[in-house]
Amino acid sequence: MILNDRMVDLADEGFDAALRFGQLPDSGLVARPLKSLQRIVCASPAYLAERSRPVRPDDLAKHNCLAFHYLRPEREWHFDGAQARSVKVAGQLTVNNGAALREAALNHIGIVMLPDYLVEADIKAGRLVRLFPRHVFPRAPLQIVYLPDRYMTPKLKSFIDFVVDRFG
Asked: How many CB atoms lie within 10 A of CB 68?
């Protein structure tokens, strides 16, 4: 198992399967949809005490917003709902790993936008504070992908069944 947040080439790099987050480009891979993920904006209580709590998404312009860096830094955050809008954010840190962004937020560095599964326990424990609960991000699909001509070994089938059962 390799854990990283980059797009791997299953065939060239010898992977049996991968989890992909977001809209998939047409790739010829078999994709099994899983549950979609909700992203949440949050920060540590200490960061908010020092910098003040943003009331509206537009207030993010005055804050250190930590960005996920996939193909490029995610510096425009899109909110859905009755007051749908896009907000340009800036910050001192971009990281290509969600767990590292979570650690940065826990260490009071700034505001993050992360999938719910990464921050729910921290929010419940009071280590992070959810911001803008009435403003939500569009749900992002999660899929497991594999090559269409890949021989379905018992190990691969078992892994796919586990992932679909756990996240389907």
From this structure: 20
Where is average pLDDT lowest: 20-29, 134-143, 157-166? 20-29
Residue with token string 């009755």: 82
Ordered by where they begin, the domains of the chain are 10-35+141-167 (3.40.190.10), 39-131 (3.40.190.10)
- Strand spans (E) along the chain: 17-21, 30-33, 39-43, 65-68, 76-79, 85-88, 94-95, 111-115, 129-131, 142-146
Contact between 136 and 80 (Cβ < 8 Å): yes
pLDDT score of 117 more than 90: no
Kindly state the tokens that stand for 86: 């896009």
Q: What is the pLDDT of residue 71?
A: 54
